[in-house]
Protein: Alanine--glyoxylate aminotransferase family protein
Organism: Adhaeribacter swui
Amino acid sequence: MPDTALNFYPGPSRVYDQVKDYLNMAFDEGILGIQHRSEKFVEISKNTVALLKKKLNIPQDYYVFFTSSATECWEILTQSLVKQKSFHLYNGAFGQKWLEYARKIRPESTGVAFDVNAEINVADLQVPTDVDLLCITQNETSNGTQVKEPTILNLFNRFPDPLIAVDATSSMAGINLKYIKADIWYASVQKCFGLPAGLAVLVCSPRTIFRAKQINERRYYNSLVMMYEKMLNYQTTHTPNVLNIYLLNKVLEQRPLIKLTDKDITQRAHQLYDFFQEQITGNLSLLIENPEVRSYTVLAVKGEPKLVEEVKKKAALQGITLGNGYGAWAKNTFRIANFPAIPDAEYEVLKNFFLKNYA
Ligand SMILES: *Cc1c(COP(=O)(O)O)cnc(C)c1O
């Protein structure tokens, strides 16, 4: 099955059709064997950073790094920016995993879980005073919720000292994130970027780099100060995923500014939510009842495990891949990506499938 078959998995997910041509171009241009200390690589890397800033609306004074995954970012942030502990606000499997990984390295790290239908209550939030890093998952891929911009701003205002770190793995490049309102943002590219797995983008505010320099942790190949020093010349501490950086560059070149993508994605999200709410049988319902916290990029639909299994099987027979549920919702939900690489026409096919079978 080609990757362009109807694939609504929220990561790894459908890649842009153009990736096929870009792969050939990379081969023909001799990109696959270039040295990562060469001028050619530096040019691609520099260009990609500039494109990320331009297309995603990342402030000019923020720093951009290439890592291999969001999971690696969890580790980098804990190693290099947390002296004592981080504090995590989570409502799903990815946010919780982040805390678990942080604890392996900084055992004093803690957090609080909040309800999937609730917004984070910033005003009443109790955060230990000596926290180095405050961690949130902007888009919780496991249950299809999101933390919206005003909440992030409130956190930033109420807790001015710790760095605010945001996992935006399944929303960056899909929605217009306000980078200025937090210190650290990261995402791997196999979700909203519409690219193959094996690369992630880490975005840091100037004060993040200032802290990293103060702490000056240099024990690992991916220590943030060392990454920073190499990135001054658009290089990495190790041989990076040059092919994927090249693909990222090519995809970004053809993408509109994020403002436009955001408009399309949020509009399509509202249409999909309305569709499932109004037109589909009551045996299948939206997992998240509160419209205010529903994700724009990942939808979760709930049903009896037997029905969920049947829906996925029936869809597969029509060449439609739905995302499995994840974590606590593995059996009683399926997920649908609303990512920019998936054309509108494919959502019409998806809706027709549901209208025909589950209306
Ligand atoms: C997919 C995902 C991750 C993990 O990404 P990797 O690239 O596999 O490390 C982390 N956080 C969120 C919110 C995700 O959706």
Q: What stands out?
A: Residues 6-15+257-358 form a domain with the Aspartate Aminotransferase, domain 1 fold (CATH 3.90.1150.10). The first strand starts at residue 6 and ends at 7. The mean pLDDT is 97.
